[in-house]
Design a protein that fits this description.
Layout lengths: L14 E5 L28 H13 L4 E5 L9 H9 L6 E6 L4 H11 L3 E5 L5 H8 L4 H11 L7 E6 L8 H11 L2 E6 L17 H12 L2 E3 L9 E5 L4 E5 L12 E4 L4 E3 L8 E2 H6 L4 H13 L5 H7 L9 H6 L5 H4 L2
Parallel strand pairs: 1-2, 1-10, 2-3, 3-4, 4-5, 5-6, 6-9
Antiparallel strand pairs: 7-8, 8-9, 10-11, 11-12
The protein binds S-adenosylmethionine and iron/sulfur cluster (2 copies).
Length: about 350
């Protein structure tokens, strides 16, 4: 068993978010609202063998959960090949993926065959016109087909919904009912002021308390589920047994228990979603650093980690979008779609 590596606040490193591409086939208004983007150079994108080498170093340091994300992970060519390689590693106890679902119907079987354990599909609306406005693509049907294809193949399918006031906050009950109908657990996410969310404002955040009130009005008593977990979602039960979650990342950040870090598709490692500086693991890898050297780079970065990005944002009095567009253009690593959600 690897020894547990903890940071300055005694938080272990357990959870690796692996962005396999910065590219995406949607343009969600809360993530990629701009007309154009600066992409990571293709030659910098890690090959699967390089990702595997890095994952092995992280496994040595105690990571046991890996989540593939992006950009849109399913636009990465041959993704099931990488999944099969990761699934062969018994130390990866939980191998999951977050996807927008557009390409899921075609790939669900191959992903399951490759050994992917769990899938989360991001779905913010059930209305085609709204989907088009929110994502700038006419793909709601494809996402729904993806969910239908994935539901029987993956246990515990989850649906993540970013709730934005005046955009989709009138669909909380519809999402719960949809989740019920396809056997998926819905998780409502508070709108975050992360890089890329250049249209963010506090008024557009629907706080968890308000979501709970609205759901109680519609469904009756909402009871918190008592469970010990480092997962960001607090879970609740409706009187008919339906479970759902709320990720109160803006009004009630969970930095105190944060065991996750993010590797971008070009091998930059970020210790916090809000972090501005990353560790360049690609450069180390490509200059021939061995496992021991890479391990000690990662270990010393984690040992000195003091990140509490969302808590620090919460403490600010005047709060607006985190990063101006010209700064994002100069360093695309600051984008949410580059470091993964
Ligand atoms: N493209 C995939 C998808 O959308 O599921 C994976 C990458 S996406 C960056 C990961 C998650 O981040 C999605 O569930 C998305 O809704 C969430 N996300 C992006 N921007 C957000 C924001 N400003 N506030 C809250 N969640 C956000
Ligand atoms: Fe939307 Fe995910 Fe693409 Fe961002 S990365 S635009 S959240 S689908
Ligand atoms: Fe973790 Fe940073 Fe998110 Fe806090 S803001 S939960 S430290 S990633």
């Amino acid at each position: 068993m690897p020894s547990v590596l903890v940071d300055q606040y005694q938080r272990p490193l357990r959870n690796l978010r692996l962005s396999v591409t910065d590219r995406c086939n949607l343009r969600c208004s809360y993530c990629m609202p701009e007309p154009e983007y600066v992409w990571l150079p293709r030659g910098d994108i890690l090959q699967f063998e390089e990702i595997e080498r890095l994952v092995d170093v992280f496994l040595d340091l105690g990571v046991d959960k890996v989540r593939l994300t992006g950009g849109e992970p399913l636009v990465r060519h041959d993704l099931p090949v990488l999944i099969a390689a990761l699934a062969r590693r018994p130390r990866v106890r939980d191998l999951a993926m977050t996807t927008n679902g557009v390409l899921l119907a075609d790939q669900a079987q191959a992903l399951a065959d490759a050994g992917l354990h769990r899938v989360t599909v991001s779905l913010d609306t059930l209305r085609p016109d709204r989907f088009r406005d929110l994502t700038r693509a006419d793909d709601l049907d494809r996402v729904l087909q993806g969910i239908a294809a994935a539901a029987p193949l993956f246990r515990g399918l989850k649906l993540d919904t970013v709730v934005i006031r005046g955009v989709n906050d009138d669909e909380l009950d519809a999402m719960i009912e949809f989740g019920r109908s396809c056997g998926a657990e819905v998780r409502f996410i508070e709108y975050m002021d992360v890089g890329g969310a250049t249209h963010w404002s506090l008024e557009r955040v629907v706080p968890r308390t308000e979501m709970l009130e609205r759901l109680a009005q519609r469904f009756g008593p909402v009871v918190p589920v008592d469970e010990a977990s480092s997962a960001p979602a607090d879970r609740y039960r409706l009187s008919d047994g339906t479970l759902f979650g709320i990720i109160a990342s803006t009004t009630s950040p969970f930095c105190a228990d944060c065991d996750r870090a993010r590797l971008t598709a070009d091998g930059m490692w970020y210790l916090c979603l809000y972090g501005t500086a990353g560790l360049d693991l690609r450069r180390a890898l490509r200059r021939g650093a061995d496992t021991e050297e890479m391990g000690s780079m990662i270990r010393s970065a984690w040992l000195s980690r003091r990140d509490r990005g969302a808590e620090e944002r919460l403490a600010l009095r005047d709060r607006a979008a985190l990063i101006p567009v010209d700064t994002l253009r100069r360093d695309p690593h600051l984008e949410m779609h580059t470091r993964g959600g």
